[in-house]
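Subject: sequence -> structure tokens, single chain

Hey, anyone have a minute? Need the predicted structure for the following. Not urgent.
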Amino acid sequence: MKKFLVFSCLAAWMLFADVAHAKKYTFRIATLAPGDSTWGRVFTRLRRDLRKESKGRIKIKFYPDGRMGDEKLVVNKMKLGQLQGASITSIGLAQIVPSVLLLQQPALFRNYKELDYVREKMDAELRAKFEAKGFVLLGWGDVGYVYLYSKKPIDSVEKLKSTKIWGWTDDPITKEFSESAGVSPHMLGILDVRSSLQTGAIDTVIGTPLSVIAMQWHSYLKYRVKYRFAIGVGATVITKKSFDRLPKDLQEVVLRVSQKHHKALIDVIRKDNQRALRVLIKRGLKSISVPKAEKQIIRKISRKTWKSFEGKLFSKADLDRVKALLKEFRSK
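Reply:
Had a minute. Here:
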């Protein structure tokens, strides 16, 4: 009996020693999203679960609120090893794999169901493209339906020409669409938008209801164009170099826990965008309907925008594949 107790104590001590001295891994992950936003809260839960599931061997240092700079800078910091990961929009993702912007082309998807179908069908090949560039895609996360917001009412492309519309510095889509519509966008970093709305340097922006509130732009806007220009997408990626350093058991933990929380994130973002839109309307934001003839003009400009990116951001084969998948889904 005494020998058994000694053996048990020794085994317990050895187990404790193994856990205490197990190698620990720290991931520094950045995002533009505010820490108290929907994205921030979901990421806090992800960080907690990764620590729990890995028994404290994985630690996440989260840098929200754009503390690490705009998305292009964040991607560069990952490439230099200063950050291990980022939760970014398609604009940041395109700094790694440009063809991901195919999912955010204007007037391409009518609703979330179409996006979900196409993205699921293309998921494996998109992940492979990121891996070939030295990144592991942990999970997708929507931004939501993208609308046009302004200080003035806009119900036509002609009226859009009189606005000072913002274009994200690293966003080729808004720039190309605006110029195809005969509009000259004011290209600014996303962190400069709020001050530019304050000073009047710009008077029109694109965004989702949730992002407009999260970035505190809503106080300077009076109207929303009631037309879904696109669906904003995003994802969380980490460098393959940092992922490959993990033992196999921890790699499995990271992938499993990340997938769980990103699926939850998509559901929460979609619901919160609906709530955010109701909040904006309650606060006095007026919705401007777009006449049928103008919608046809927007779709025509959108198709021209898709065509302009063929061979640059994505191949004709990529675009044809998305069109075929949409046709397949709509036929059902």
